[in-house]
Amino acid sequence: MSQEASVLLGVGNPLLDISSHVDKKLVDKYGLKMNNAILAEEKHLPLYKELTDMKDVQYIAGGATLNSIRVAQWMMQKKGASSYIGCVGTDDYSKKMSECASADGVTPVFMKDKDTPTGTCACLIVDKERSLVANLAAANNYKVDHMKSADVAPVYKGVKLTYIAGFFITVSPETITLLAEHSAAEGTKFCMNISAEFITQVPIFAKTLKETLKYMDFLFGNETEAAAFGKMMGYEAKTVADIAALASKEESVKGKKRVVVFTQGSNSTVVAVDGKATSYVVPKLDSKKIVDVNGAGDAFVGGFLSQVIAGEDLPTCVDAGHYSAQVIIQTSGTTLSGKPTYKAKKADIVSA
């Protein structure tokens, strides 16, 4: 990768994925379920040591936002073109997190909490299924003062596009407001993901999402999050396309047309602008090639944003999102290797 000043910034909850293929007995030992994700309780904490002692253990810099930024960085192939901000501890895991992000070409700009361990996510893999146990730890402790500091402020003030997953709403809404207002003042792009239904359902989180919507140039989500968003907004619309269309028409302080993008797995991807929704075909992929669908949504956003940065049109951004998502689901976890073979082209529109 050639070196370049950062043009893309991700802000979120950094979690070091500790991933390994395991025997189903280990899953049962901790009372876990496959194809499921939970927050760690006290009884789960010894699991992390068991995973780190395994021979095939992998350490992958993760968390929803960082996964998207890593994929965008991979697609751009320009080292340092992206930066990532979040809170980690001062332990060995934070060092691994920095090493992993840097190895992928992303510049980590971490707030360090000396009193709290780095957030981790145990990833137990049995065949093609996985069980996730997240321990947010230091990721929960990010403070807006870090973003305002002399060393960090130039990072967010220098980029063209900022992306934040909705999970970060639970951590520092003050930081989100700072970045959103800066984007409006400077005319840069500000993007968010709904990320989870509970963000729209818990009143204090929903309030932040609603208040931030007017600053968003792009809003992402999947079909279940779209339905929850529609309920939060009081829309009578029921279809994903109609909800996207209405969301695209909500007030914008920038005087620009908001783009709303809702994925639906292997079904069509819906993109709405100025009250009009268009559905795009998701290319077919042989199910035998699918290894792990975890992270597909994050990867879609990464591919999409890489083409926004490149100045491509929306159908091309969607196509790049589909490409990235399909690359990721053919690997274990959000693991990137080699160079992308992507050639920019427009995604096909679903015929009426």
Write a concise synopsis of the structure shown:
This protein has helices spanning 24-29, 46-52, 64-76, 92-103, 144-148, 153-158, 173-186, 197-201, 203-213, 223-233, 240-248, 296-309, 314-328; strands at residues 2-3, 8-11, 15-21, 36-39, 58-62, 78-79, 82-88, 106-112, 120-126, 129-135, 161-165, 189-193, 218-222, 259-263, 269-273, 276-280.
Walk me through the structure.
α7 links the parallel β11 (161-165) and β12. The mean pLDDT is 92. The chain has 352 residues and is α/β, with parallel strands linked by helices. α10 packs across α11 and α12 runs antiparallel to α13. The strands form three sheets. The protein has a nine-stranded mixed sheet, sandwiched between helices. The chain is built from 13 helices and 16 strands.
List keywords for this structure.
nine-stranded mixed beta sheet; alpha/beta; 16 strands; globular
- Order of neighbouring strands in the sheet with most strands: 8-7-2-11-12-13-14-15-16
> Average pLDDT across residues?
92
Distance between the termini: 42 Å
Q: How many helix segments?
A: 13
Strand content: 15-25%
Q: Can you summarize the main beta sheet? A: 9 strands, mixed
**Could you tell me the number of beta strands?**
16
Instruction: List the uncertain runs.
Output: none
Whole-angstrom Rg: 19 Å
Structural class: alpha/beta
Helix content: 25-40%
Shape call: globular
Order of helices and strands: EEEHEHEHEEHEEEHHEHEHHEHHEEEHH
